[in-house]
Amino acid sequence: MSEAGDELKKAADVMRQVHERCVWSQTMTHERLVPYLVEESAELVDAVERGDRAELREELGDLLWQVLFHAEVASHGDVDPFGIDDVARGLSEKMIRRHPHVFGDETAETPERVLELWNAAKAQEKSARSSVLDGVPHAMPALALAQKVLGKGEQVGVGLELAESVAAAEAIAADEPGVLPESEEELGDTLLGLVAVARARGWDAERALRTAVRDVEDAIREAEAP
User: Fold this and answer.
1) Which domains does the chain have, with CATH numbers?
2) NTP pyrophosphohydrolase MazG-like domain: from which residue to which, for each copy (predicted)?
3) Which of the two ends of the chain, N or C, has the fewest CB atoms closer than 10 A to its terminal CB?
């Protein structure tokens, strides 16, 4: 086994011992661990955005600990127990299926082709799904959720009116520079300004966006209805 494999096995063994001997760890459930998972994920994002390599390595370890912790809890479950080996096996099998250009006979010379093969494999795996919205995690932050749902809407022709609105706004911006943000930095300033407006008027910006996203979801389901 490689050194990396040895260290991963050691981390899993440490997790098992902690769960066996630590009374606090023994009280943890998947539900109770969720806040820690969210926090560690956010800290990893911060490390990536700051470009701090040492912190990135540490936060990746903390996130890995959460994966090991959930797997250890699952291994003691009364219903359908599974452990980290099962998680790793399932991951390997899925990644092999979704990379037929690496492990199969397909070829992919462009990133776009890779995504086509990935989505085709995923669609086959999730053939029981009846809506493009199936599998969209609503625990995502509102902005990330909005981007995800708008992307799903494009697959069924929903959101075209939004695209038309953007095109119209861009046409206005061509004559009146500054109307629309022209970079991610300017977009951030614009979004922050909108949040400031919401705060000043006593509105909940998160709830407002989630409400708007639900309207798009309703439109998607209506478009999918036979």
Assistant:
1) 3-78 (1.10.287.1080), 142-224 (no CATH)
2) 29-103
3) C
b/e code 136-158 from CB counts within 10 Å (16+ = b) = eeeeeebeebbebbbebbeebeb
Residue keyed to tokens 């009364």: 78
Tokens encoding 216: 């798009």
- Model pTM? 0.74
163, two tokens: 């695209």
Query: Residue ranges of the alpha helices (H) in 22-83?
Result: 23-26, 30-50, 53-75
How far apart are the C-alpha atoms of 119 and 113, rounded to whole Å?
A: 10
At 8-46, the pLDDT tens digits run: 999 999 999 999 999 999 999 999 999 999 999 999 999
185 class by beta-carbon count within 10 Å (0-12 exposed, 13-18 middle, 19+ buried): exposed
- Residue 71, pLDDT score: 98
